[in-house]
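Kindly draft a sequence, keeping tokens residue-aligned:
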Amino acid sequence: MARAAGQRFVLPIVLVGTFMAILDVAIVNVAIPSIRSGLNAGFGAVELVVSAYTIAYASLLVTGGRLGDILGRKRMFVAGLLVFTAASALCGAAPDIAVLVVARVLQGVGGAMLYPQVLAIIQTSYQGEARGRALGAFGAVIGIAAIAGQLIGGALLAMDLFGWTWRPVFLVNVPVGIVAAVAALVWLPDDRDESRTRLDLGGAGLVTMFLLLLSVPLLLGRDQGWPLWLVLMLVAALPVGWAFLRFEKAVAARGGQPLVRLDLFRNKGFASGVPIAVLFQLSYAGFLFTLAVYLQTGLDFSPLKSALVYTPSAVGFFCTSLLAPRLVPVLGRHVLAIGYVLAAFGLLGTAATAAAAGTSLSGGGSLGVWALAPTMLLTGIGQGLGMSPLVGTILSSVPPQDAGGASGVVTTSMQTGNVLGVALFGLTYFTLVGQAAHGAAYATAFGELMPLSAVLLLAAAFLVYRMPQAPGQPANALVERLPGWAGGFAWSMFLATGGRVGDQLFNELLTRVRGQRLDRAGQAPEPFGEFLAFHYRHQEDADAAWLAYLQREALAYGDRPIPHEEERTPVILAQIAEIARRQAAGRLDPEVDPALFRLMCFGLASYPTLLPQVTRMATGLSPHDPEFVARWEEFLGRIGAHLEAVHERS
């Protein structure tokens, strides 16, 4: 009873930790101008405040997960909460920008310690439908936290608690973190992975060094006037990145556990999915950062007014984050592509509105707050569709035993994209603004930069289209929902136009049929009596439209080559091979030709559907009449059993 009572609190506790870790990736964006003025810092230094957290978080995520396996997930989760909470207190008390950057690094360390434990704790604490609901809540919290940072940060800055301006943005974590840590100590179950997990400290060190060498010059270079030491750091990033890859290969070659399993990139779905994640995060992080600077520095919006501008995007993001998982079974991976295209159009519309309005958005009344609302809503809708199913779509092409390592690579890649998004967009944005201090320059620069963010999303959409389909999944899962008549219409349209119309849909329908028939070849029962009845039963259920198309195709082409013949032949050969396997097992006369036997099987299973009028005239029954179906299945069973019996007697 006590365990059941405690389990009710497991999910809320770990979701609080999840919310805090994701929230602090974005919450600083809205406080950038206040931090800059309060600590008398340059924009590059404030960008480093944003990125320092993400650099530490990204480079230590996989290591944090491994430590949870070794030391226990509860211990690491609680330790991560305490480090995160203490670092948040240090952020809130920071006397200068250097201390704030160091405190943000410690926050990132705490986030990397606690976040990887969440999924492991959910997996071990819940089973069946309860686990599914818990994982759904986990995904929803990630989406909510990703947008709530702007709104919560804006509200705290607007309230200006105790006259502390930006400091409550960090200090709000302290009481929440303490309560969550105490609750975790009381209610989280003790557990650890019994497998022999090892740390890749060399890999963690090299990837951290690579991110620092790459991002710090991009963040500080413009403000510092590109001194030689920053240029040398940027140049050194390339050999360090190469050294990281070589080191990871060496760790894997000697049987170790590398931080990043490079062999995962041999999987085409995974190899094309990781760049999609990076492109999305580049665009998303760059958009959030530059919008915050544009609104608060360029247009002098208050933090609350700035947060209200984000609201339509937040609403759209939240709604489609919840909707996207329901669309995936219908549209498959194309949910992502639709989301990226919608978000790209939203960004282009936002850029055009900002560029055309100039400084007029900062006028009185609600104009400045709501002028961007329609395009911001569209942007949020697209980003929600593109974020929620992203990791699951990438991992769908990875074997289940590799899902853990692949998940770590995807998450680390996304946070790396986050770092580079802030760095690259910040550098480009302030270069476009130049030395001008007026709002029009910020509006113009924002209008010029957002098309780049849109282009990144369109590139991601193109890569989604190019992703190979996951095993057992059609290229477009909507095809699975097409009724038979719709599939028949698509095939007829293709045939009637000589293959000039509907080739893509035909190809996707053919993929489905090919997969079904290959599966059926291996699933059929061993005894030939049941073998024949099995094929008839399943073609009766699923192949009516396909058989009707074959009839029309036979009339159109005769024995000449047909469209997609090279894709259809392997299915027939697989069916012949399956018959040959049964023949080798002694179930069929070795003198029987497997190819001809396959033709006979197809003829027996398909005859009533191919020639329904002859079936009706011979038996007085429609081939779909239950009485005829039962009689025909029994007849096929007798023929198959007779074939086996004759072979056994001989």
In short: The two ends are 67 Å apart (CA to CA). The first helix runs from residue 2 to 26. Residues 1-5, 471-485 have pLDDT under 50 and may be disordered.
